[in-house]
Amino acid sequence: MAKEEALSVEQLSLRDQQLFNMPKEIDDFKSLIFLNMMGNSLESWNYDIFNLKHLEVLIIKQNDLKYIPEEISNFQKLIRLNISTNKITALPKTIGSLTDLRFLHISYNDITSLPETISNCGNLEVLELDHNQLRFLPKAISNLKKLSTLNLGYNQFYEFDSDWLLIEELKTLNLEHNSLKTLPHEIFKLSNLETLIINNNKLTELPTNIVSLSKLELLILSNNSLTTLPDNLSKLTQLKTLILIENNFSKGEIERIKKELPNCNVYI
Q: What homologous superfamily is domain 1-156 in, according to CATH?
């Protein structure tokens, strides 16, 4: 493609092209809004990519990248960043400069912690961190007031951080395959929660206040060590699906649960 033609291109897909390096001519595409380079074998960055000042969507998942350069902050208009399924161990502090970012997908990497600056991404709505090596999140995560989906599945969390309870707009919280033993009694503060996924943890009981999650529609608790659920399950009037497979409920407790939730599909 001629350089003059590249200047007017707004969308470019280089998906599954067996690329080992980012194209040398990448910064010829000055008007790019959407760039997809997923499914290649990229191991390093062509820093000219950070000259794409108009980029709103960058999909670079399923590659072999080990880091994200600090220059990521150049993408001031970026709305969606998908860099899942790479070999990244950390995010740069400059990620906090992406104040328009709404969707951040960094699943299937080797990330052990997040920078405090991520709290500056105040427009973030979806944060997918599953399949990493996280044990905690920065306290400032509670500043993400617009966050509606938080996926922390398949990490190494041992406790439910009280700071998460301050993310009031949260609708979906996924904590599957961690090592949680308890949930906080203040979980009722997540008043907009619609989906709560906590299967494959080490829970032995649930807080009684969980029945105050009046908007809850899906609750997955399979593969824990539960023997009973709190009283007053009937308060969960919006609950449509409850999955309890592989726990230790008695026959009588199962009957009670089903009786209190007559309009819910209960899987045991």
A: Ribonuclease Inhibitor (3.80.10.10)
